[in-house]
Amino acid sequence: MKRKRWIVLLLIFVLAFVFVGCKNNNDNNKTTPTGVDISGQAIVNSKITLEINQETTITASVRPKEASQDIVWGSSKPEVATVDKNGKIVAVGIGETEIFAKAKAKQSTYASVTVIVQAPPADPESVTITGPDTVIKDSFITLKAVVEPSNASQAVIWETSDDTIATVENGRVEGIEIGKVTITVKVVADETITLTKEIEVVAYTTGPTAVKISGENEMIVGRRIVLTAAVLPSGSSQNVTWESLQPTIATISADGEVTALKEGTVWIVVKSVESSAVQDMHQIVVKPKPTPIPYPDLQEYEIKIMAAPHALNEHDPFDIKYKSDDKTAKQKAWRDIEDLMNCTLKVVPYPDTAPWGQPRIDWLNEKASTNTAETDIFVSTTEWLAQLVNGGSALNVLTYYQKYGQNSMSAGLKGASTYKGGLYSLIYPPVSGLTVDKGLFYNVNLVQELGLDSPASKFNEGNWSFDDFKAYVKEANGKLVEGQTVLSGRPVLYYMGMVNSSGVALANITNCTVNFNHPIAMDAAAVLKELYDDVGWGDIAWDATVTSFNENNSIFQSGDYWFVKTDNRWHDKLWGEGTTKFGYVPYPYANSKTKEDSRTSGIGGACYMQAAGREYPAYVNSEYVYRAFTEMMLKTADYILEDPTYDVIQKMRTAASNKLDDPESVEAIIFFTREKVLFDPMYELGGGTVRFTLSTAIEDVVVRGEDYATKMSEIETGILQSLLDVYS
Predict the structure, then answer these.
(1) In CATH, what number is assigned to the domain containing residue 279?
(2) Does 317 lie in the same domain as 282?
(3) Which residues constitute the domain of residue 137?
(4) How many structural domains does the chain have?
């Protein structure tokens, strides 16, 4: 009996051990730390900034909350900042360190925060204010205060003398009523240091007050150059008239093309169509034809022009698939240069290791840095300009252009190719042709299936205002089936296009301003917000990745003209072999504008650049290569203009018909002759990075419903600085 009792007790003991062991194992699994969170008022974007001898305390918690909350603190550089067992941080030396909070129960589980220790700020001495002097009622401007010296605290307080006229917050001034107001800025570190700026709140007006001419000041007898004019303020009609005061020396056409007839000095006058009293004058010195410079002997050197593998036919006039109507002229000019300079011009493909986008930029820069560039000239885009210049792969050809280019580069391309005083593109044939770079492209098949009017016909009839566009989109939306949308692509491209189409440059290089606060810009954002809320949107993505458009489920996509029927964008079988049809319509213009006021943005985009880091034999150099390519282009233009059958409108119509399958679209695109081009570098600033910043802000407004003025104010100063970096 005793033995049985002992066995029973032993069994109970064993079972108890098993149960307790299982329970402990489960508890251990349950309480194993899985993460650590750090918090503290001093933390901003995972960083803490302190001055020497300053202190702050942060806290840490272990996840899950059932786990042990014991923390082990540490600093990667205790000579910069120390941390004690309670999370108190003390700044001891200038520099940067990581403060770690590790779960004591599992020290591989931790979180960290960066601590930056700075020297105490210098005593402030003065403050300056930069920014516009006027603000449009119901709009806003952004002022910037800079405290000197630069290592003083930049914290300031903004005040307005009358918030019924204009309010101010963090430098953003919003116009409330017509009138004048004094904006005051005080330095927080020393409030005796103040500065005032008078701001006038004005009514929105589209009346012109000034017009500015851009273009070359010298030309050669027998050559042509093109001048452009910008009417101010932004939003004024950009329509102008041109006149030569010395027409025996040089004439000027209605679209700004100057033809030099003989030596001398000519004054060109431009006047606003809306107000002839608003005018500008531009002097051009016409020089005699220079003594020909002997051609060098390049000893059969092969000048390589590198292009995308799928697009060689777009650059080689001897390719059977070359479609441009300059084919005969270009072939003749090509052979001329090969004979004159004893060289060969050859179009070659980029290697597979250099696909489109950042990999190609990196490949070009890497080759240049090691002096192993594999081409003399390469097809690029002005969007990459900053990265290629800063990476050392694009050659500054300004000096060569001044020697051989005969000032024949279009103002738009020259503007888009300029970076900090250098010039980085080669010229195209300087003759009139299609000017459209960006716009709305649409699925002709889908439009016809739904029984809709051609969007391009609406534009051609003069019915393509913001309100007309909204009505068309809403009508189209009512005919779609589930899964289909009217609009697709990035809202920011619509936004920029709609503002530009209305004659407003978001980044205006004439007076170096950013125009996010323009009423037309605000209206464009409001239209897109309304459409997004009312009818929805297809895929919000860039270029060829807009699936809803590619799969026949969206009518419109924002894009570039060169995308059409291009293998790596919108190929000619996108919606079926033999049935894919593309249409084009400009972005809509503001309700206060007309078709005649509308503009297309450009011309940047695709271009030729000359490679740096190219090793040449003794009888070749970069100047000779530049001359060969440039004179080939100039000769191409000469041969085109010598053709008695040359007609610029027919040339444009033929080129457009090769891409577009809707006759109304062809008429819409050829409407934009070169005087109807508005240059706006917003798309390309910062090597394209500004576009992504702006895209996020516009999507915050359109998609996520945030306040337009607030979002634009947050990014305006940085974008203005990018504009000044390039064009100031």
Answers:
(1) 2.60.40.1080
(2) no
(3) 126-202
(4) 5
| R_g of the chain computed on alpha carbons | 32
- Does residue 447 sit in the same domain as residue 557? yes
The structure's pTM equals: 0.75
Answer yes or no: do 340 and 455 share one domain.
no
Say which residues have a Cβ less than 8 Å from residue 151's Cβ, sequence separation at least 6. Answer: 119, 121, 122
Tokens of 684: 């390309």
206-230 residue pLDDT tens: 789 899 998 889 999 998 888 989 9
Name residue, tokens 């009508």.
Answer: 475
Cβ–Cβ under 8 Å, residues 76 and 100: yes
Is residue 10 domain-resident?
Answer: no
Q: Is residue 50 in some structural domain?
A: yes
CA 214 → CA 50, 256, 472, 515, 557, distances in Å?
A: 49, 10, 37, 20, 33
Answer whether 221's CB lies under 8 Å from 289's CB: yes
No. of helices (H) and no. of strands (E), the chain: 17, 40
Tell me, yes or no, whether 592 and 496 share the same domain.
Answer: yes
pLDDT at 79 over 90: yes
Q: How many CA atoms lie within 13 A of 424 on its CB side?
A: 31
pLDDT digits (tens, 9 = 90+) for 650-679: 889 988 999 999 999 999 999 999 889 888
Q: What is the pLDDT of residues 543-573, one digit of tens each?
A: 889 999 999 999 999 999 989 998 889 999 9
Of 230, 262, 287, the one marking the end of a domain is 287
Domain finish residue from 226, 257, 287: 287
Question: What b-and-e string marks burial along 398-429, b requiring 16 or more CB atoms within 10 Å of the CB?
Answer: eebbeebbbbbbbbbbbbbbbbeeebbbbbbb
Cβ atoms within 10 Å, residue 510: 19
CA distances from 139 to 129, 173, 232, 501 (A): 20, 9, 18, 20
136 falls within a domain = yes
688-727 confidence digits (pLDDT tens): 778 889 999 999 999 999 999 989 988 998 898 888 877 7
240-244/556-560 β-pairing: unpaired
- The verdict on residue 193 lying in a domain is yes
